[in-house]
Amino acid sequence: MTNFAELRRQMIEHQMIARGLRDEAVLNAMSAVPREAFVPSELVEFAYNDAPLPIAARQTISQPYIVALMTSALQLKSTDRVLEVGTGSGYAAAILAQIVGQVFTIERHKILADSARDRLQELGFDNVEVLFGDGTRGWPSQAPFDAVVVAAGGPDVPEALLEQLAIGGRLVIPIGSEMHRQSLLRIRRVSEDDYQQEDLGGVHFVPLIGTSGWQEERSRQSTKEPVTVTLAELIYQSSEHFGSIKEVNLDKLLKRIGNSRLVLMGEASHGSAEFYEMRARISQELIEKKGFNIIAVEADWPDANYINHYIHNTSPDPLLETAPFSRFPTWMWANKSVLKLTHWLRDYNLTVAENNHSVGFYGLDLYSLNSSIEAVLNYLESVDPETAELARVRYGCLTPWAKDPAVYGQLMLTKQYKKCEKDVLATLRDLLKARLNYAHADGQRYFDAEQNARLVTNAERYYRTLYYAEQNSWNQRDQHMFDTLQSILSFRGKNSKAIVWAHNSHVGDARSTQMSARGEFNIGQLVREHYRRSAYLIGFGTDHGTVAAASEWGGPMEVKQVQPAHIDSYERLCHNVATDNFLLPLTKPIKPALRKRLLAERLERAIGVIYRPESELQSHYFYACLPQQFDEYIWFDETRAVEPLNRETSKGVLETFPFGF
């Protein structure tokens, strides 16, 4: 059973306190009100997500932080009488009712007004009155109000709401000339005719519909908005358009990348072919024209090592029992787009001497507990049988769970994990102590063994922390990926230059997304902090098409339709640009007007190996600031699913090697 009390505690800590909200009365109210009671039953599991959720009448229940922020901005006292415009689910009214003496709330959708009234009564909020009506007119018979809060965005501040404020009263309302983008204003009535106004920052709310708001059928084109260049037009003017990946000219992109030592390239989904193919095209030019010699990807070290052996015409460890890329999701790397790149890399390496100019292919991830244990033991068996036997004993505590390591975290219940933690660390330390002796015989093989031993150590910690509420397994994983990248760069020498392939959520700077509010960082943030201007971060996006994904972890791959992007997302904005494919520089050069307008946070979509179109807003969107997250954004309006390799599509060993089919 879901522990909602714990989720509320985490919501307050990571979504509110971490963002600097310290209003004790508001935090106590957020802790007391069960948000799960105000969301549709099918979305209860997402009740405490840091995002808005859909409710009836095509409306939303606001993001928890926004509810807390607006409530705090009202500067409430326990004796206040408060008017809320836009009841919605009734959640914000319940928060207000925990703090003040009386709440009056107006909702223009009768289905929402009725259901909120019933829900609030059932939960015992007897100091809330709900009215079905036009909220832009206020509630004259109950005025004046000490505070008024409006949960929808209008083009102007309704005069009726200003008039119904008591002297000293505060009005908090989103206002903006665009229907779905506003600034949050706090207006204080200081006298009969005087008001003071503060801008609290950019927000995204549903339109305020009513006599003094937007008209029901009113479009953006028919508003009072002055005639100006739209944001989509600015993007069109600032971007480089192309018809296909094969014909795109990347010279300007390479010039923008300049002397960067690292180029990180993302993807908006793990199953879209265009993202793989464009990254391959860019990687090839970086290798040929700028001397990059490392491709490091969001894959496990032993699996990627098969590709590394293939492109260097060497043999992988014959004793490894596990076939490469056999772990879910197999299609993420065992697909035709990646296979084509491996053939190109092999051909390229044949043209250069086996030195720092040859390109290596490496895995950054840490899920391959079983394969990495095998690799360490096989290596030690060949160079130091006595140490191999000791390592076998030490790894013994992990062996029962190696093929299903997520179960390992349950050991914390018996505290057996403490012995495993000590033993796997001891094996890594022994390898590091013997570095000179082992590496002298074969530096590449020693490096492989060292990285596998490090992976086992970090994987043990990662799977264990999945069961600790206070610890962040995401951070464990991305720290491992960054440390592995650092090790690869060091191994390849001071002139090494690396290309990283991973999801946008790993590559984009986490400080510019809502991940940061949860205390999460990622490899993009760590790279920027360490390498600063010597790193170039590229994100990818799409609006619609097909994607290879599963419906649940471990499930079969399906080809699914990607839903058109949410109206408040960067993806919808890019879809409105009058070209299908483009490269958009976000740091240099970029028009100041474009950068300024892009800085306001919007939703951004992230599809991993799981895709749930039925709950897309909750499962696959988060807030981000695109021009601070990436240095470049590459857009494909329509994308297609990657084509997986399998026994049916394989025609022969040579065509599908090194994927083991």
Task: List the keywords.
Rossmann fold, nine-stranded mixed β-sheet, 661 residues, alpha/beta, seven-stranded mixed β-sheet, elongated
Biggest pleated-sheet summary: 9 strands, mixed
Q: Give the rounded overall mean pLDDT.
A: 85
Second rung of CATH, namely the architecture of one domain? 3-Layer(aba) Sandwich
Count, helices: 24
How far do the termini sit from each other?
A: 42 Å
Quick one: how many beta strands? Answer: 20
The CATH homology group name of one domain = Vaccinia Virus protein VP39
Task: Give the helix/strand layout.
Elements: H1 4-16, H2 24-32, E1 53-54, E2 60-61, H3 64-73, E3 81-85, H4 91-99, E4 102-107, H5 110-122, E5 128-132, E6 145-150, H6 159-163, E7 165-178, E8 181-189, E9 195-203, H7 231-238, E10 240-241, H8 251-257, E11 262-265, H9 273-290, E12 294-300, H10 301-311, H11 336-350, E13 360-365, H12 369-383, H13 385-394, H14 417-433, H15 435-441, H16 443-465, H17 473-492, E14 498-501, H18 504-507, H19 523-531, E15 535-549, E16 558-562, H20 570-575, E17 581-585, H21 592-598, E18 602-605, H22 616-620, E19 621-624, H23 626-629, E20 632-639, H24 653-656
Parallel strand pairs: 3-4, 3-6, 4-5, 6-7, 11-14, 11-15, 12-13, 12-14, 15-20
Antiparallel strand pairs: 1-2, 7-8, 8-9, 10-17, 15-16, 17-20, 18-19
Helix pairs in contact: 2-3, 2-4, 7-21, 9-11, 12-13, 12-16, 13-14, 14-16, 15-16, 16-17
Compose a concise summary of this entry.
The protein is α/β, with parallel strands linked by helices. Strand 6 (145-150), helix 6 and strand 7 form a beta-alpha-beta unit. Helix 9 (273-290) runs parallel beside helix 11.
